[in-house]
Structure formats: C-alpha cells, structure tokens
Amino acid sequence: MYPLFVVLLAAVPLGTLAGAHRASVKSRHRHISRTQVSTNKTYLLEDFYQADDFFDQWSFFTGSDPTGGNVAYQDMQNAMSKGLAYVDDCDNSTVLAVDSTSTVPLSPVRITSNKNYSSGLFILDAAAMPVGCGTWPSFWTVGPNWPMAGEIDIVEGVNNQATNQMTLHSGTNVACTIDTALESFAGHVLGTNCYSTPTADAGCGISDTDTRSFGYGFNGAQGGVFALLWDQSAGMSMWNFPRADIPADITAKAPTPATWGTPAGFWSSQTCDISTNFYEHVMVIDTTVCGNWATSAYASSGCPGTCSSMVANATNFADAKWVINYIAVYQ
C-alpha cells in the first residue's frame, strides 16, 4: 500500500478524500468453508442510478488527488463541456472519461454519491472500465473521518493488472481481519489485517482469480457486474460476473445472493466487527493517472518507459473511460 496524502479538506463532503491505493502482498491461502455468506433473502430495490439521474444524484470532486495522481479533477460543467461526463443516448450508459487531448496534468472525473449507506447490496453494471498503462480506476465506498468509518474497495487496479483487487480498510481499535481458517471465497488473500492509517494503508485485500474481472479481460467480455453484499450480521461478500454469466435474478432486479455461489471475496463478521468499522458510506467512482500505486507498480506491469513519459502524451489514455449501464442499491 502506498501512503495517502493527508488532505481531508473541510469543503469535501463525507470524507471523499479517503483513498484507495494498494500495494501487492503475495501470500496465498487455502480457504475452508464454514461461514454462511448470505441468506435466501431476495433484496428490494432502494436506489437506481442510470442515465441523466446519475449526474443529478452524484457530486463532482475537484480537490487535489490524495493518491498523488498527475491529474486535475473536473467539475460537472467542465467535465460535460469537454465530453468527459455524458450519457450515451443510444443505450443510456453513463460515460466517465480521462481527457485524451489535454496536457499534463490530465483531466479525469471523480464522482461521489450524495446519499450514504450503512448496509445493503450494491451492484455496478459496466460495459467497460478504464484500461492501459498509467491508469488507476476504482469503484469504492468510504465513510466520514477516514479511516474511522472504513473504506470498501469493490473494483480497483493499476496499469495492466490482470485481475480485480478487493480490499477493506478499518480504522478503529476494534478488530477487523481475515481469518483464513473461517472464510469461504475464491480469491487469493493479499493481507489479513484490515487496520489502516494514512502511512500504512494496505488493508486486507483479496485478488480475484478471473481475468475477466478487470482491465482488458473485463472489457473483452463486454463488461459485467460487480456486486457487494454488506451484511451487518454475516460480513462483506463480493462477486464479479462477466456479461455472459450475470445471474437472471440480477437482470430481473430481484437479486438473491444466496444462489450466486462462492464469492470472489468474503470478510466474515466472526473476525471483523462490521457495524463498528463500516458505516455511513458514500460511493465513489474515479480514475486517476499514475499516482502512488500505479507509478510504483509501473515497471513490473510490463509498461514501456516511465509513468511520467506515458502521461506526457494524453492520447495514450483514449481508452481510459468508464461506461456504466447502472448502479443499483438494494436493501
């Protein structure tokens, strides 16, 4: 993990400066199924973000990038006038892009939901995500006064990373760990202690094993669905479903997570006090360029030159865009 810059400005709503921003720890563990991931409950739709409603219910972040990216985040007016945030009238998808015609610092978009949540089933359906050397896309949730109210990274990675990285960050003195003897999930453990500080923020991460869960593999599969089930009594579960494998109940807006099979990541309430460590979270979608993690991992990602040289030519980021079909929150 690479340290966050401590720039929690009072003008930024609900701790949205908290940041995402991982290092790779390479231990792997075998997982023994002993914990119930979810009940047979069918969840009911609470909020549905799509098309023009998307921008009505999200705020544009314009502060300096707390992860050290070589970017200048755009407000709504500038983002829309530059074609960096818009709704595609052909399919009602929401597009969030990095300006591939600008000069350094590049101009991307980072948006935050106006509403906060302390539990629920969160579903992101995306047709594409930002890809390429120097990119650092993420979809995450964060509470106030980071890291005290926690952070949940649902989608995250850098450069040419092959699979998605999912991470929890806690900030209280109440335990939150992954006990690999109790968990049931398909991913590889990157770290077991979720406790994070501004100078040691690796958290407890799990790497997906499916190459369709991130980057070029995700886009090549025509995108798909990411799901977070935040259950105060059971724990946190995350899934990724490529487009061809999206469960019918998700498409029907009647999701029943108990039927989805083994999650890619699971953090049990037996070893993490969920309600104490995670509450009042807003959702965040962003793309930064270079920054602490993407720069540190650049050479090992098989990328040419340096991250600085890559960002000097904005046309390298023509494919650095989110294409989002919808985000749904169920309770």
UniProtKB/TrEMBL annotation:
Q: Which UniProt keywords apply?
A: Hydrolase, Signal
Query: From what superkingdom does this record's organism come?
Result: Eukaryota
Where is the signal peptide, in residue numbers? Answer: 1-18
Which GO terms of the molecular function aspect are on file?
A: hydrolase activity, hydrolyzing O-glycosyl compounds
Q: Could you confirm whether the keyword Hydrolase appears in this record?
A: yes
**Which residue numbers delimit the GH16 domain?**
36-331
Is Hydrolase included in the keywords of this UniProt record?
yes
Q: Where are the membrane-spanning stretches?
A: none
Q: Tell me, which GO biological process terms does this entry list?
A: glucan catabolic process
UniProt xrefs under PANTHER family:
GLYCOSIDASE C21B10.07-RELATED, GLYCOSYL HYDROLASE-RELATED
State the name under which the record lists this protein: Glycoside hydrolase family 16 protein
Protein source organism = Paxillus involutus ATCC 200175
